[in-house]
Write a structure and sequence with these properties.
By secondary structure, this protein is an alpha+beta fold. The protein contains 17 helices and 19 strands. The protein has a 5-stranded antiparallel sheet with strand order 3-2-6-5-4. The chain has a 5-stranded antiparallel sheet with strand order 9-8-12-11-10. The radius of gyration is 64 Å and the shape is rod-shaped.
Length: 600
């Protein structure tokens, strides 16, 4: 956006008033000093002109009246002096060498002149008598008014015959001086006003671009990077304005680029599963993503500027950061965060380049799941080894017994062979279950998903398990008035789910118990429940019953011939079909296993 210079902004500028006062003040002072000097000089010139006028008048009178002055007082001389005084506007006084006044243009009659005081002691008269000329400025004793006097001695044949004095009142001289002074100071005032107006225009012409540039800089400082300034000058200010606009455009582009980069960085950091924390050299958090907040239990948005220890509350991490800042070497550690859930975090501390070290970056990985999986792997290997070892040990023991002579005893050999066959079947089922579970988990098992009638599959499963249930006098039943229900699943997979749940219920239900199968639609899902009246499961064991090889009662389970993989297969099959499993149980009151599958 282009901004034109604003006169209101200019008038509010301190720099404008400073320059205006400085520029106009210097010119006004110079004009006043010039006026003062000129008025003083003019006054001196007026006084010099008055003195010259009095001198010329005195010489003129001396040339015309020197002869008449020798005759003394005379009426004709008085008339002539008075006439000359009126014509020239100058007072003339003719004085004898002894100081007697012979004639005076200031009086009409000779009688009045005769009554005048003796002028022998007048300063100008005394100087003229002694030196030939004399001047003075004083108040007239006769008229009582200040006058300026010039006296000239009149000589004839080399001998003085009298004094001719010319005088002008001072007030007339002052009137001329005042008029000249008023003219001068009027011109000075006009010059000052002109200078002030010119200074206002010149300073304004200079300040307007500066004001516009200042407003543009303030706008950019407040985040308006589209602000532009127009300065028509072709001087340095104009070039500065053009450079400023180019800088503003480049800054706008850079800020957009930085904003996009920051958004991308925030998106990348926010989407990372690894926690990232940047710390400065004072161990204050500069940046933290949401993953870091989840790992150490803080709000990433509120972490900026806070001490690292206050944010993560982990002394091991703080010590690693301190060591990395001191040695400028990467550090690595694994720490544990206690809380509602125990988390294991692998922390890498990388110093930032620079001298001195400006800070470090912490990259954190949640290794809790890796630890859990590693624990599961170890448990799985241990359980598989144990599960395989048990039947193999039995087979080997029976085989050695037979080889050591039991083969000659028909009854014992048949019993041992039956045991060997039983353990071989158990080992076979274990291997089959393990292979099936491995295929399901690796998504290598191919399922034909279709709409399967739950009632038909349930009836087939119950018929298959009825001999085993009858052997323990356990009643297998379907809950009365079950609605027709179809689910989206693989037929053999659904059969495997129900076989494992019903087989598990029969094994852990004492003689005379009941196993009931029920199902019902539940929103977009169908819930299938297998309920028994068996021994039940403790609450602390319920969340682990679907793990591989986990047995609530290990001795009883092995006695019953279970592989420990049935419920794990049920869980993974249900998840493969888009469903989930659950269990509710009370010790001694039986258990209810539920499977939810999508409605078909």
């Amino acid at each position: 956006m282009i901004r034109l210079p604003d006169s209101r902004g200019m008038l509010s500028s301190r720099l404008f008033w400073k320059l205006l006062i400085a520029c106009a003040g210097l010119n006004v002072v110079a004009a006043v000093a010039f006026g003062f000097i000129l008025s003083t000089r003019l006054q001196d010139q007026i006084i010099d002109q008055v003195d010259l006028r009095l001198r010329n008048a005195a010489y003129l009178v001396r040339g015309e009246m020197a002869e008449q002055m020798r005759a003394g007082r005379d009426e004709a001389l008085q008339r002539l002096v008075r006439q000359l005084g009126e014509e020239t506007g100058t007072r003339f006084t003719l004085v004898a060498l002894d100081g007697a006044v012979l004639a005076d243009s200031g009086y009409e009659s000779l009688a009045e002149v005769a009554r005048m005081q003796n002028h022998r002691d007048r300063p100008e008269i005394a100087l003229a008598r002694a030196l030939g000329e004399g001047t003075s400025v004083r108040t007239s004793d006769t008229l009582g008014l200040p006058h300026r006097y010039f006296a000239l001695r009149a000589d004839q044949d080399g001998e003085p015959i009298g004094i001719i004095r010319a005088a002008l009142p001072v007030d007339s001289i002052e009137a001329q001086t005042d008029a000249a002074r008023r003219l001068i100071w009027g011109l000075v005032a006009a010059v000052c006003l002109g200078v002030l107006g010119l200074a206002y225009w010149i300073v304004g012409h200079i300040i307007r671009p500066v004001t516009s540039l200042t407003e543009a800089a303030e706008a950019i400082a407040s985040g308006d990077y589209h602000h532009r300034v127009y300065v028509g000058n072709r001087d340095e200010l104009g070039r500065l304005a053009r450079t400023f606009n180019r800088m503003s455009r480049e800054l706008d582009g850079r800020m957009r680029q930085l904003s996009q980069t920051g958004d991308r960085q925030s998106t990348v950091l926010g989407g990372m599963i690894e926690g990232v924390i940047a710390v400065d050299d004072r161990q204050r958090v500069v940046l933290a993503n949401r993953a870091a907040g989840r790992l150490f239990g803080f709000r990433s948005a509120a972490a900026d500027g806070r001490p690292l220890l206050e944010v993560v509350r982990n002394h091991a991490v703080r010590e690693a950061v301190t060591k990395a800042l001191a040695t400028r070497q990467p550090q690595k550690l694994e720490t544990r965060r206690e809380g509602t859930e125990k988390l294991y975090v692998d922390v890498h501390v990388q110093p930032l380049p620079g001298e001195p070290c400006p800070g470090v970056v912490l990259v954190m990985h949640d290794t809790t799941e890796l630890r859990r999986l590693e624990s599961l792997r170890r448990d799985f290997v241990a359980n598989v080894s144990h599960e395989l070892k048990t039947p193999l040990s039995s087979i080997k023991a029976y085989s050695e017994t037979l080889r050591n002579g039991a083969m000659n005893d028909p009854e014992a050999s048949q019993r041992f062979l039956a045991r060997i066959e039983e353990q071989a079947d158990r080992l076979h089922h274990l291997i089959i279950d393990m292979l099936m579970l491995a295929r399901i988990e690796s998504d290598q098992q191919v399922f034909e998903i279709d709409a399967i009638d739950v009632g038909e599959v349930t009836a087939a499963c119950l018929d298959n398990h009825r001999p085993a249930a009858d052997a323990k006098r356990i009643e297998l039943q379907v809950e009365a008035a079950q609605p027709a229900c179809r689910v989206r699943a693989d037929h053999e997979g659904l059969r495997e789910i129900l076989d494992n749940l019903i087989d598990n219920a029969i094994k852990y239900t004492p003689e005379g118990g009941t196993v009931t199968v029920a199902w019902q639609p539940n929103g977009s899902m169908a819930q299938i429940r297998v309920r028994d009246t068996g021994i039940g499961i403790k609450p602390e064991d319920q969340r682990r019953v679907f793990e591989r090889f986990y047995r609530v009662d290990k001795a009883r389970s092995r006695e019953l011939g279970g592989t420990g993989l049935g419920l794990a297969i049920v869980k993974h099959l249900a998840q493969s079909f888009g469903g989930r499993v659950g269990v509710t149980s009370e010790p001694g009151q039986g258990s209810t296993f539920s499977v939810e599958l999508p409605l078909g």
